[in-house]
C-alpha cells in the first residue's frame, strides 16, 4: 500500500469514527450538570448585578 493509500484509509476510518461519536446521545447526567452550571451562572449574575 502506498503512503497516499494508507493516509486515505486512515482518513476514512477517522471520519467514520467521528460520525459514530456525533450520533451518540448525550448522557443525561452530563445534561443535568450543564443545567446546574447554567443556573449557577444566572444566580451569580443576578446577585452581583453584572451583565455578561
Describe this structure in words.
- It is a single chain.
- This protein is an all-alpha fold.
- Helix content is 79%, strand content 0%.
- The protein contains 2 helices and no strands.
- The protein has helices at 3-22, 28-48.
- The radius of gyration is 21 Å and the shape is elongated.
- The N and C termini lie far apart (55 Å).
- The model has no long low-confidence stretch (mean pLDDT 90).
How would a crystallographer describe the biggest sheet? Answer: none
Number of helices: 2
Number of E-type strands? 0
- Computed structural class: mainly alpha
Residue ranges: pLDDT <50 for 5 or more in a row? Answer: none
Task: Estimate the mean pLDDT confidence.
Answer: 90
- The rounded Rg comes to 21 Å
Strand content: under 5%
Order of helices and strands: HH
How far apart are the termini? 55 Å
Q: What general outline do the C-alpha atoms trace?
A: elongated
- The helix content, as a percent range, equals over 70%
Amino acid at each position: 500500500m502506498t503512503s497516499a493509500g494508507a493516509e486515505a484509509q486512515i482518513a476514512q476510518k477517522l471520519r467514520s469514527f467521528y460520525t459514530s461519536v456525533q450520533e451518540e446521545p448525550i448522557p443525561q447526567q452530563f445534561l443535568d450538570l450543564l443545567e446546574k452550571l447554567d443556573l449557577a451562572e444566572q444566580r451569580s449574575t443576578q446577585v452581583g448585578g453584572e451583565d455578561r
